[in-house]
Amino acid sequence: MFGKTDNWGACAQHLRERWWNVLLPDLPVFEMPRHETGVGGLAGRAKELLDREGIQRAVIGGNSLGGHIALQVALRYPQRVAALILTGSSGLFERGFETRVPRRPSKDWLRAKVREVFYDESHVTEALIDEVKETMFDPRRALKIIRVAKSAKHDNLRHVLHQVRCPVLLAWGEDDNITPPSVAHEFKECLPNAELHFIPRCGHAPMMERPREFNQIVEQFLAKLFGLHPVPKPAVRRS
């Protein structure tokens, strides 16, 4: 969860080719009423998605705020969560930019903020910067993003993480500047059933920046958890 669903495209394709059923929820951050706009409200929407799809239990993954939401789903509805996959998750500490944001941020300012997400600057494309600019220049959307970010800051989970009993995979960028490696280590200490893997030369979004390594870690975790090794679907022969 979180970011554009395209951010998870490589991971979803990899797992689907190995017979996993993968959903990429597009949580309605910009459509939610004000009183629901926050981590708790988004966790409720994620649970509603499971209900609509008829899914009793799921492995839930999330990056950044998406990891935070996944943790809240596990805390509120533990019977619905078989395992968690967290990468760059908020919930303990995160360097955000909901304060001191210029009213009309320049493209250079936006580029510098996007640059903080990645280890490899080649991922900071003009198209990505334009997407961020479009959101930041829409007052209603920008306010929603700031409100959700503030909600995440205020929702520190340190004192309740021990209640998350399901298996948890922490797949972290070794060069994450938003949620640094020390945060990953703290998650590992606080979660009773967690394993931690670092991906070198990788920033805050491993599923985008290092999808091959990220997918390998995820697949090994799922294979160990479910006691099976998914295999690629057989090729379809076209006549």
How far apart the termini lie comes to 38 Å
Biggest sheet, strands in spatial order?
A: 1-2-3-4
Largest sheet: 4 strands, parallel
Average pLDDT score? 87
> In the CATH classification, which architecture of the domain at 5-93 and 155-226 applies?
3-Layer(aba) Sandwich
Give the helix proportion (percent range): 40-55%
CATH structural fold name of the domain at 5-93 and 155-226: Rossmann fold
Order of helices and strands: HHEHEHHHEHEHH
Q: What features would you describe in this structure?
A:
The chain has a domain of 161 residues: Alpha/Beta hydrolase fold, catalytic domain (Rossmann fold), CATH 3.40.50. It is built from 9 helices and 4 strands. The chain has a 4-stranded parallel β-sheet, with helices on both faces. Helix 1 crosses helix 9, helix 2 crosses helix 3 and helix 4 packs across helix 5. The C terminus is likely disordered.
List the helices and strands and how they pair.
Layout: H1 9-16, H2 39-53, E1 58-63, H3 65-76, E2 81-87, H4 107-115, H5 126-136, H6 139-154, E3 168-173, H7 181-190, E4 194-199, H8 206-209, H9 211-226
Parallel strand pairs: 1-2, 2-3, 3-4
Helix pairs in contact: 1-9, 2-3, 4-5
Index terms:
239 residues; alpha/beta; Rossmann fold; 4-stranded parallel beta sheet; 9 helices; 42% helix; 10% strand; globular; disordered C terminus
What is shown here, in short?
This protein has 239 residues and is an alpha/beta fold. The chain is 42% helix and 10% strand. It has a domain at 5-93 and 155-226: 3-Layer(aba) Sandwich (Rossmann fold).
